[in-house]
């Protein structure tokens, strides 16, 4: 996707503030998730994984990684399409490649297509300090009709 | 899958007890999830969705439905393969079809393939009282080598 | 999906005639694919797999099974939404479970959601005579706006 | 995936020769598909799409793009794991983003994980001359046990 064609309307700080308003879990069970930075056609989201996010084997759980992927798509929709809380995931396919220990994980997201009704994106989840891919997901968000 | 070929080794009560031992979140953030019944080649898992599981629009969130799907696969692996906590999801693809309000949701799971190293399953998530499919997922669990 | 809510507008014979008109490959490389029967909320499609559809190991190839799944969704869209050739697949996720030898394969398809703009479906591919699932897929078709 | 960790054992010419030996369709219905180049941790595969690969609307068909993705994974398995024809796809999830006209299409593939039994990869399919992503897929290949 040519990056200049699709400029974000909100930065990470504005998106995080919006998320906290509309998404009560982000103040509670999801407090560990946030937008780190937003750029044309993509963004990075972070999970500061602690004990709550682990599963047997002391590895970050599938649902925690799914949540990071889903929030990555939501941040892309809020920042690049419309700052409207009503975008919804229509599908998400995730592959788990490696175990991740507790600690910061970064999800590098890119918009594969921004249509009128649908946005397709993918995300590479890696340890914040760098390293092999832990999980990779592709998803589709349904965008609400523009309000006037 | 011919149902008689693959008999469960554990019932719902035994699996729920095992889950609580090995999966601390099931006593805490995931307390609303449990196995409802287990039969040859399949099982039903339930989410009693409350406010914690909602997203903007007062609908059960994608991560909550993903968690139900993932637990469905885990229950199948524990009951039909090996009561070993170390089975891990390798991929999961989920489609979200309809909004679900707070309340009980049932995930009807079936084993599509039980191999030596991998188990493939799918799940239909519907309102507990019956109704249209809310979400459908297909996933693969990697099974640990049998212990002796 | 309550079956009575969504009645097909075309039967298998009419769909096969339409497919041959709009889809030239179905007279040529895809001649082995056809609709077998259509019922409210679902259909069965068949692949008569011969040597052209095999891959190393003398098993029906992944692309051949994908094509059957894709045609299954197309038959559902043509028969249940609009007999309009311009419905297009937006995504398809397929799991390959078992090898299939040359011979007839049936794909049992069901509509998981018929929306205004999107149709979600799944398909179980089994040997025509019955037996274990060979492949399972879930897909989404984008439906063209209704013409007048 | 750190590129230096995983060096290919075969180049594009050797893989194409191997494909023609073991995969009869590549001399016939699949003659338009080939490996273009192979590098550590990835490869590029090409489809020279002509009339045979089009669907209604004169756009390259879903099965043709799926086949390119599947061949991309096969080329990665042959070149990076074992030059053994018996690697098989276990699942593949593909998103179709834009229409593609007849002409050359390139699939840029990367290995997300090379395990002992499974290889996970993804592929971006773009027009050969450059441009927006036409389709994106993620897949898993099951690798045969090493022969001696």
Quick structural overview:
Chain A has 148 residues and is an alpha+beta fold. Chain A contains 2 helices and 8 strands.
Please give a structural write-up.
The structure is a homotetramer of 148-residue chains. The two termini of chain A are 28 Å apart. Chain A contains 2 helices and 8 strands; from the N terminus they run αββββαββββ. Chain A has 148 residues and is an alpha+beta fold. Chain A has one domain (3-142): Hotdog Thioesterase (Thiol Ester Dehydrase, Chain A). The model of chain A has no long low-confidence stretch (mean pLDDT 89). A 6-stranded antiparallel β-sheet of chain A has the order 1-2-6-7-8-5. Chain A has a two-stranded antiparallel ribbon with strand order 3-4. The longest helix of chain A has 19 residues, at 62-80. Helix content of chain A is 20%, strand content 39%. The first copy, chain A, is globular. Chain A binds chain B through residues 22-23, 25, 28-29, 52, 55-57, 59, 61-63, 66-67, 70, 85-86, 88-96, and chain B through 22-23, 25, 28-29, 52, 55-57, 59, 61-63, 66-67, 70, 85-86, 88-96.
């Amino acid at each position: 996707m040519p990056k200049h064609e699709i400029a974000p309307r909100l930065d990470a700080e504005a998106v995080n503030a919006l998320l906290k308003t509309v998404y009560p879990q982000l103040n509670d069970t999801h407090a560990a998730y946030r937008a780190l930075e937003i750029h044309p056609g993509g963004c990075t989201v972070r999970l500061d994984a602690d004990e709550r996010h682990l599963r047997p084997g002391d590895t970050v759980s599938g649902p925690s990684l799914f949540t990071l992927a889903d929030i990555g798509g939501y941040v892309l929709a809020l920042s690049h399409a419309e700052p409207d809380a009503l975008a919804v995931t229509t599908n998400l396919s995730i592959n788990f490649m490696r175990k991740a220990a507790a600690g910061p994980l970064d999800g590098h997201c890119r918009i594969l297509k921004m249509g009128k009704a649908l946005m397709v994106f993918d995300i590479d989840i890696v340890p914040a300090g760098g390293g092999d891919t832990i999980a990779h997901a592709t998803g589709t968000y349904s965008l609400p009709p523009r309000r006037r």
